[in-house]
Design brief:
five-stranded mixed beta sheet, 171 residues, globular, alpha/beta, 33% helix, 6 helices
Length: 171
């Protein structure tokens, strides 16, 4: 199944472009850089994003997030979807949150998504640094109400890496 062969990474509530030193940003939501991607291990990339997210939380005195298999599936689906439509809406025009119901990832009290993509050589560290340099994305990463995280990563046929973080707070 394509869902299972897809990939893992990032989420939260505002559209974001990772801006790394010397990167070139295109468009309103754009991509960074012009060069093509090196080969990456998508699962390892997603795991590193997860670990760096928790490292940022711990540095700020917050509890680490637990990984959630259903949220990983949700984030992976969203990473595929943002390769078609880079927005906090699904390609159908529905809210991104409808994917939580589709994958039966509810119940939850609060949820948020961070989305990011890069056409430059992508690293999890650059993605997280970019997110942490954005006040709204940093707020999502460090929000004390969030307890679970799913990270999804998808690399499209052009070599662009799309990542999604889905954060959820328990009921």
């Amino acid at each position: 199944m394509q869902k299972k062969t897809s990939i893992y990474v990032l989420l939260l509530l505002t559209i974001f472009i990772v801006i790394a030193s010397g990167s070139e940003v295109e468009g309103n939501y754009g991509s960074i850089g012009k060069e093509s991607h090196q080969a990456i291990d998508i699962k390892a990339f997603a795991q590193e994003i997860f670990e760096l997210t928790n490292a940022a939380r711990i540095t700020e005195g917050l509890s680490p997030l637990s990984i959630n298999v259903k949220l990983v599936a949700v984030a992976t689906k969203r990473a595929e979807e943002i390769s078609v439509s880079f927005a906090h809406e699904r390609p159908s025009g529905a809210s991104w949150e409808t994917v939580l119901e589709e994958y039966e990832a509810a119940p939850y009290r609060t949820a948020s998504e961070n989305i990011v993509r890069s056409s430059a050589p992508a690293t999890a560290k650059r993605f997280i640094e970019g997110l942490m340099n954005s006040p709204s994305h940093r707020e999502n990463i460090l929000h004390p109400a969030f307890t679970r995280l799913g990270v999804g990563v998808y690399r499209d046929e052009k070599g662009i890496v799309h990542a999604v973080q889905i954060f959820v707070g328990e009921l």
